Amino acid sequence: MPSSQLSYYILFSNYLQGLALHDILDGEDIPNRIAPVPRCVHGGELSCGMSLMIEPRWIERVKDSIARHNAEHLNIVSLEGQNNPHRDQYC
């Protein structure tokens, strides 16, 4: 993802909730990535520190899946520019 692209982060109160939703989304072939909660969100949330990162084009399917499975989560936040495509590149 380019660094200026919008991403959605699903926050959880514990890792089990995050892993459960990750499995649900994988089972429905909805792309998602386990990621740390961005620092700018940490201050006001009581999250466990783990989030699922979702691209904007998938967010409505994710919300539908959360509703159908009654998946537990704290919040869904949207942030722009959190991903640096050059991070962890060494050459």
Give me the secondary-structure topology.
Blueprint (H helix, E strand, L loop, with lengths): L5 E6 L3 H13 L5 E4 L2 H4 L7 E5 L4 H11 L5 E6 L11
Antiparallel strand pairs: 1-3, 1-4, 2-3
Characterization of this structure:
The chain is of the alpha+beta class and 91 residues long. It has helices at 15-27, 39-42, 59-69, and strands spanning 6-11, 33-36, 50-54, 75-80. It has a 4-stranded antiparallel beta sheet with strand order 2-3-1-4, covered by helices on one side. The longest helix is centred in the N-terminal third of the chain and has 13 residues, at 15-27. The protein is globular, with a radius of gyration of 13 Å. The two termini are 19 Å apart. The model has no long low-confidence stretch (mean pLDDT 85).
Strand portion, in percent? 15-25%
Task: Give the low-pLDDT segments.
Answer: none
The count of strands amounts to: 4
Secondary-structure-based class equals alpha+beta
Task: Give structural attributes.
single chain; 91 residues; alpha+beta; four-stranded antiparallel sheet; 3 helices; 4 strands; 31% helix; 23% strand
